[in-house]
């Protein structure tokens, strides 16, 4: 599958925490960082996501915010 998004970060699913309608999917990136994605429970089921799965965190955003104290 090819995507237009340029920010595709490979990693491994560490945890899937389903909620009422959405799940938090924790991905350990190959570079050592962690990303948590909030996706629908339906998407988790359709993708068959489980800890240990190899995935890509795909980030497509028109804005990036930076804050500093």
Describe this structure in words.
The chain has 69 residues and is mostly beta strands. 10% of the residues lie in helices and 48% in strands. The protein has one helix and four strands. The longest helix is centred in the middle third of the chain and has 7 residues, at 41-47. It starts with 6 loop residues before the first strand and ends in a 10-residue tail after the last strand. The relative contact order is 0.31. The mean pLDDT is 92. It comes from Paracraurococcus lichenis. This is TOBE domain-containing protein. Keywords: Molybdenum.
Intertermini distance: 41 Å
Taking strands numbered 1, 2, ... along the chain, how are they ordered across the largest sheet?
Answer: 3-2-1-4
User: What series of H and E elements makes up the topology?
Assistant: EEEHE
Low-confidence stretches: none
Q: What is the helix tally?
A: 1
Helix percentage? 10-25%
Strand residues, percent: over 45%
Shape: globular
Structural class: mainly beta
C-alpha Rg (nearest Å): 13 Å
The beta-strand count equals: 4
The averaged pLDDT comes out at: 92
Major sheet size, sense and barrel closure:
4 strands, antiparallel
Domain Mop: 2-68
Keywords: Molybdenum
Protein name: TOBE domain-containing protein
InterPro entries: Mo/tungstate-bd_C_term_dom (IPR008995), Mop_domain (IPR004606), Transp-assoc_OB_typ1 (IPR005116)
